């Protein structure tokens, strides 16, 4: 069997609704590594927010911040930070509209506006995280790989028209991720696969969210979790069981990658 690259989202995919990996998932990933395949996390989280999962699963390869950084054997091999001039304009644009902006480095994050902490807290708690403190100087002191803007769908078109330099990917009813344009988990998966000599047709991706659609489309085999929305499932070659019902293991077994 040719070597595969298997890329897996964290929230709603690797983690159950109890926010922990299933035993079947951990055993399956171990078996993949022992068979010589390259296993990588592919998440919208920063390294800081993904660190516990990376450690728990024993992952040495990971794509974070929706593809803005990629690591092989814990060494950074891909980097695409946000354009600082455009980001300055976005912060001003959001401030005029009393919208909160949060920025992420690899190992830190900060809220650079301070309007509606409860809205920020609500969105962050949806994946078990706390709202960061207000740090108006964060932008000037860190490289920024990703941002979050906290507004609802009624403002999508206004922000997208104003900032073609960014991709704005909705992950919560009150929040979008801000990533470079072009930029995605998919692009970075392809870059890592090329670096290690794995063909695109030998890429297998697992995901459940809007930010997973491109990587489900690009893969030789894209696997949507059973808990994904229908439009995400439509992007996949295969729909497996949910993140609570051994979905990852069942799909890998169906693909004859584990027993």
From TrEMBL:
Tell me the InterPro entries matching this sequence.
Cof, HAD-like_sf, HAD-SF_hydro_IIB, HAD_sf
Gene Ontology terms, cellular component aspect? cytosol
| Top-level taxonomic group | Bacteria
Instruction: Give me the segments passing through the membrane.
Output: none
Single GO term (MF): magnesium ion binding
The record's annotation in NCBIfam families points to:
Cof-subfamily, HAD-SF-IIB
- What this protein is called in its record is Cof-like hydrolase
Q: Which organism is it from?
A: Enterococcus avium ATCC 14025
């Amino acid at each position: 069997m040719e070597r595969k690259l298997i890329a897996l989202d964290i929230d709603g995919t690797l983690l159950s609704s109890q926010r922990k990996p299933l035993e079947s998932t951990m055993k399956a990933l171990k078996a993949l590594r022992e068979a010589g395949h390259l296993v990588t996390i592919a998440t919208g989280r920063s390294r800081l927010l993904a660190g516990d999962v990376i450690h728990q699963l024993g992952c040495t390869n990971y794509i974070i911040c929706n593809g803005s950084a990629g690591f092989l054997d814990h060494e950074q091999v891909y980097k695409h930070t946000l354009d600082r001039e455009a980001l300055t304009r976005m912060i001003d644009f959001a401030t005029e509209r009393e919208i909160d902006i949060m920025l992420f480095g690899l190992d830190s994050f900060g809220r650079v506006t301070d309007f509606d902490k409860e809205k920020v807290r609500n969105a962050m708690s949806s994946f078990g995280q706390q709202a960061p403190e207000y740090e108006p100087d964060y932008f000037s002191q860190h490289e920024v790989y990703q941002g979050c803007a906290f507004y609802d769908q009624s403002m999508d078109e206004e922000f997208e028209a104003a900032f073609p330099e960014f991709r704005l990917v909705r992950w919560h009813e009150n929040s979008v991720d801000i990533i470079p344009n072009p930029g995605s988990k998919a692009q970075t998966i392809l870059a890592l696969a090329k670096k290690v000599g794995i063909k695109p047709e030998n890429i297998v991706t697992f995901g459940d969210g809007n930010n997973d659609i491109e990587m489900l489309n690009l893969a030789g085999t894209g696997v949507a979790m059973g808990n994904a929305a229908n439009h995400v499932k439509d992007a996949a070659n295969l729909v497996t069981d949910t993140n609570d019902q051994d979905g990852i293991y069942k799909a890998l077994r169906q693909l004859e990658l584990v027993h």
